Request: fold
Amino acid sequence: MCTSPEPRRLPGDLAMWFFILAELSVFAILILAFAVTQVLKPEVFADGRAQLDTSTGLAMTLSLLTTGLLAALAVQRVRLGRSREGGALLVGALLVALVYVGIKLGEYAHLAAAGLGLEHSTFFTLYWILTGFHFLHVLLGMVILGWVAV
Reply:
């Protein structure tokens, strides 16, 4: 007798997937607005980019990549039945995410002190909206990491 394997299901429920789709849609719209406006106002965007510190951006990127790596390793450990290690890796991910938060808050303070707020230019209006939405996304992710780690 030949039995076929059960069809694979996506994890989570339908509401979770609608939430993820909504998040992706908002990010896509914001990034598209940023890209289109950059084409329409290249000089404003060149000036805006010149005001940003690339080493700060690199540090934030590395902290988020490290957070993701630690979270993925945590999932792997839990699947191997090593829950204690998984929990420790999630705590590590949370701590590295805190590094991102600290750097981003420092960047926001620096930009605000330099007068580069929402109303400074089209570039900074979109920059603050896009990075602010992302910042809130990271904070929510940290809450979830903390909840899962406990």
